[in-house]
Amino acid sequence: MNAPSAPRRSRVGLVIGAVVFLGFLALMFYGVQHSDRADREALPSPLIGKPAPEFALPLLHEAGHMVTSKELLGTPYVLNVWGSWCPECRVEHPVLTRFALTKRVRVIGYNLKDEPEDALRWLEQFGNPYMLVLADRDGRAAIDWGIYGAPETFLVDARGIVRWKHVGAVDDAIIDGELVPLLDQLEAGQ
């Protein structure tokens, strides 16, 4: 009996490797598709109920002008972390735009680890729903906020206390079911 040739054994090994790799990809895709929001929020932010981290960040549109966390006190605001490099930010952008148009609360953009030219071009292309946009080019201030990436969204009350955090893209159901009821509570003084 003749032993299989080396090229044939090599092709069989490649096919087996490809099948294992594709199986791994399929398993990962299944896990992502079937994870629910509760899984993604299994580790709630330790900032909830605590003062928002202090910061001094430049404005995206006016890099020489610094904005501090203290300047944002007085009325609640939604802080939305985004980047031109973030595909999910593009998904949530129309939702945030519609919400910002209600003028229910100040919507502040937090541009994370982005080149200013890319961020400005992105806003020009998709629109700017933000009252102002803070720029954190190196991501140092993001560490204090516990920001893992983009998109992430926070609700900060008038006293500077973090009341809510959402990891991932917000949609209408999240705005209507989570964010708006919290804004109602803040307005009612709770």
Summarize the structure.
The protein has 190 residues and is of the alpha/beta class. It contains six helices and seven strands.
What does this structure look like?
Belongs to the thioredoxin family. DsbE subfamily. It is found in: Cell inner membrane. This is DsbE family thiol:disulfide interchange protein. The protein is of the alpha/beta class. It has two domains: 29 residues; 143 residues, Glutaredoxin, CATH 3.40.30.10. 43% of the residues lie in helices and 18% in strands. The chain is built from six helices and seven strands, in the order ααβββαβαβαββα. The strands form two sheets. The chain has a five-stranded mixed β-sheet. A two-stranded antiparallel sheet has the order 1-2. β6 and β7 form a beta hairpin. The longest helix has 29 residues. The protein is elongated. It starts with 5 loop residues before the first helix and ends with a helix. About 5% of the residues have low confidence.
CATH topology of the largest domain: Glutaredoxin
Largest sheet: 5 strands, mixed
Compressed to H and E, one letter per element, the order equals HHEEEHEHEHEEH
Arithmetic mean of pLDDT = 86
Number of helices: 6
Portion in helices: 40-55%
